[in-house]
Amino acid sequence: MSETLLATPTAHADASPKRQAIIEAATRLFMAQGYGPVSMDAIARAANVSKATLYAHFASKDRLFATIVGGRCTQVAFDNAPFPADGLDMRQVLTGIGRRLLGFLLAPETQSILRIAIVESARFPELGTAFLDSGPSMFITRLAAWIAAEHAAGRLDAPDARVAADQFGALLRPLMFLRAMLAVKPAPDEAEIMATVDAAVETFLRAYGPRGR
Amino acid sequence: MSETLLATPTAHADASPKRQAIIEAATRLFMAQGYGPVSMDAIARAANVSKATLYAHFASKDRLFATIVGGRCTQVAFDNAPFPADGLDMRQVLTGIGRRLLGFLLAPETQSILRIAIVESARFPELGTAFLDSGPSMFITRLAAWIAAEHAAGRLDAPDARVAADQFGALLRPLMFLRAMLAVKPAPDEAEIMATVDAAVETFLRAYGPRGR
DNA sequence: GTCTATAGGCCGATAGAC
DNA sequence: GTCTATCGGCCTATAGAC
Asked: What's the confidence (pLDDT) of residue A74?
């Protein structure tokens, strides 16, 4: 697969109803089942169009998949709301950031696309990059910038802000996250999520809180 | 009449050369490509047997896959070597544990099976559990026991040893690990691995080192 | 653009000879 | 147990009518 597979930003948003139906059906099926098990017949049937119409809009199953999933990566990207300004309680701020990030990571849409990106990254190398760039990388970069500012202000002691940001994200993905990715029951509940966030914040502050806390 | 008490003819460890060839070929192909893309024809061809022979040993593709991958989970399990006894330098001990664990997590065999377990856990729920039980869960449990002992001895300050162990593992899986799972270049090199371990140990000791460090 | 119909191939699984 | 040969089905993709 070439990297041009993802570059399908048809300059004019094609609002053809059939095309839209195809995209919606393909998104639903691919996200639920991945690439292999979904047939073009099934997509055509779910979209209420014929296979010929399907192929009139998308040259091949590969291209349809890459278009759908690549676009989906940016669509479910982590909501990069701004981090709070100075003066708020550090623990509350971190807890809020952690809750938002972990909630995003555990959301069914995120899990689906992450699962698909992981397994299809061999066949579609651009998917891995698209997913990383769509959320995690940018989030860590922004969090690092915020941490650096807090460090400069003396409210954190994190000389290497990039590492600290990466580690805060990592602390939010303990075994519970792996268990969710592996679909091992029981699914994480709200209490477990909160406990994970609280523990991550606690450890982060123990490691990076201002000296002489 | 059966001539042995130890082996049932069809069920267990059959040393038949054909069966062994099937297992080896299927392992290689499934690990490299996952479930869907590998056909029974391909496995038979790679094992130099006919498809009929294949089906004489394994009732279906599903069962063959579950047998192969389930067994593989325990085979590539993390080497649970004992943790060092008392009296050694804490930083060195943690660094050694971290290097071994991260090296294991990034090994191609581990990445393959983890990728497969993640994507096929919907179709084969037992795979997720098998993978978790084969390594990560037990490792965290053992690490937690060691941390609890160190806590009791006053060499660590980790009241909740289970959380601390889980977080140490999590600190070893920053973005670099996600990048590896997504097959995004460049692959982690030795320097990056060492830097990740050192940073994880540093943060862990900042958070859980003995008070008044 | 959209349809029906089908080409052409590979799939999982089996029958029957030995 | 092991083989050859094959079945019936589903797959991607296309031809041709409208």
From this structure: 84
